[in-house]
Design goal:
Length: 342
């Protein structure tokens, strides 16, 4: 198969690789300066070549890597999911659309990134992404998420047997909001002594959820809400704000109760308890190239090939995929030592 008639695959590879790292117009200017090629050296050409690479090559397994065997037994993995938003090319009916990005962490420490636009076939895209990362039906998996109901739904559809872990950072952040409000309870009044009891109760509840005692944590928070019904607390300055934060915390923990684990034990065992590694994937795949300092707009239905190329470059698999398609493919300067030897 030939992606570009009359053009060497090495040039197509270089074009797609640079386009995954920089805007199309800048890549066109760079190629026009460095390479003795004429005609078609513009942003549209770079964009079209990159799209075709994404459609035909980016998801191919690298040379020497077998096609996935769905029944193979593979070691346990950790999967993280998160979402980011891209500006929509068509402002109606949407100004932005969501792209789901994630990472698969293998036992050997290797990482595999993936990304796909959230559409009606998101479950199929997620399944393809984890299979391409080496995850099979019998693979023990742990899925970390920030509590987004849509992401939990994807996990249940594709990996119903996986262990769920709610991101600890989002839990701690909600506790901190409640503690900040508690420190202002009755500030500047004779009722400021109530802060001590409230802070101790919140820290105790946080300690319980850290050690996997989610039911005890929720019970303590519920008793705190009843504590605010007392006459000497109800009308204190700042009481309404504290109640609002505690109520939000209860709703968040209750909605994700099945994903609350013993975070202390996981931390001691050096197992991930945070989606920070996933947020870094969102930053690598989306923010640096497609959002930050970029005014580009994208189409929800045609952005996938560009995401695939970006991911393949970050995973260092693009050259291997080209080799699978072109047996004599020589990326970068791999043939330079051979020329010097000759």
């Amino acid at each position: 198969m030939t992606l570009e008639r009359g053009i060497a695959p090495e040039l197509v590879y270089v074009t797609a690789k640079f386009a995954a790292l920089a805007p199309f117009a800048k890549v066109a200017d760079l190629l026009a300066e460095l390479l003795p090629v004429g005609g078609g050296a513009n942003a549209g050409t770079v964009r079209n070549r990159t799209r075709r690479v994404g459609e035909h090559i980016a998801r191919l397994p690298p040379e020497g890597v077998a096609y996935p065997d769905i029944d193979a037994v593979t070691p346990a993995v950790v999967i993280g999911l998160d979402g980011g938003y891209l500006r929509s090319r068509h402002r109606r009916p949407e100004r932005n659309f969501e792209v789901l990005a994630g990472k698969v962490l293998n036992v050997d420490g290797s990482q595999h990134r993936f990304a796909f636009a959230r559409k009606g076939n998101s479950a199929s895209e997620f399944a393809d992404a984890v299979v391409s990362a080496g995850v099979r039906l019998g693979t023990p998996a742990t899925v970390l998420c920030d509590g987004d109901p849509g992401l939990w739904k994807l996990q249940r559809q594709v990996m119903p047997e996986a262990t769920l872990v709610l991101d600890w950072f989002h839990i701690a952040m909600r506790f901190e909001h409640a503690l900040q409000a508690a420190r202002g309870l009755g500030a500047g009044t004779l009722s400021d002594y109530l802060q001590g009891h409230l802070i101790r109760e919140l820290e105790s509840a946080k300690w319980r959820v850290w050690h996997g005692r989610s039911s005890a944590c929720l019970g303590r928070l519920a008793r705190l809400m009843h504590w605010f019904d007392a006459a000497h607390v109800r009308d204190v300055k700042g009481a309404a704000a504290v109640q609002r934060h505690i109520n939000d915390l209860i709703e968040y923990l209750y909605a994700n109760e099945l994903a609350l684990v013993n975070y202390g034990r996981r931390h001691r065992d050096r197992l991930p308890i945070s989606t920070a590694f996933v947020e870094s994937a969102v930053n690598e795949i989306l923010s640096k190239r497609m959002i930050k300092k970029q005014q580009m707009r994208w189409n929800r239905w045609t952005v996938q090939p560009f995401l695939d190329v970006r991911v393949a470059v970050l995973n260092n698999t693009l050259a291997g995929s080209f080799r699978r398609l072109y047996s004599d493919f020589q990326p970068d300067n791999e043939n330079h030592p051979k020329q010097l030897a000759a």
